[in-house]
Amino acid sequence: LESPLDIDDLIAIGEADSFLRSGLPRTVLRDLRRGRWAIQRHLDLHGLNRHQAHDEVAIFLAEATAAGKRCVRIVHGRGYGSPGREGVLRQLVKGWLARRRDVLAFCHAPACDGGQGALWVLIKSSAPARR
């Protein structure tokens, strides 16, 4: 969650609807959007400030990866309870996820699963590569 990104990249990621790690086929993101991956865990960030949310996301992803989970949901909310009704966590979470090497892709969840207030995240497998 700490690796450097150019400010222009951060702004683009925060406003983007989805993210796909460079070098991966577009079918990975398409399959994620279509719900072909089962959501195996979820995290709800409602009520947390940006520092608490940052820590919770880092712990959550580390635990999910260690447990061999591949697809998770992170609910960041739409920002309706924030000052100015602006989704601060919505933008920040996307930037944090894009910096992590273990995150392969993410997209907004469908309306029935949180819509613009939640992300589906595909995590790199923690299993050792077969030879």
Walk me through this protein's architecture.
The chain has helices at residues 7-15, 26-33, 50-66, 88-99; strands at residues 18-20, 41-44, 71-75, 103-108, 118-123. It has 131 residues and is an alpha+beta fold. Helix 1 (7-15) crosses helix 4 (88-99) and helix 3 (50-66) crosses helix 4. Residues 7-14 have low confidence and may be disordered.
Number of DSSP E strands: 5
Portion in beta strands? 15-25%
Largest sheet: 5 strands, mixed
What best-fitting shape do the alpha-carbon axes yield?
globular
What distinguishing features does this structure have?
five-stranded mixed β-sheet, 131 residues, single chain, alpha+beta, globular, 5 strands
What does the secondary structure layout of this molecule look like, with pairings?
Blueprint: H1 7-15, E1 18-20, H2 26-33, E2 41-44, H3 50-66, E3 71-75, H4 88-99, E4 103-108, E5 118-123
Parallel strand pairs: 2-3
Antiparallel strand pairs: 1-4, 3-5, 4-5
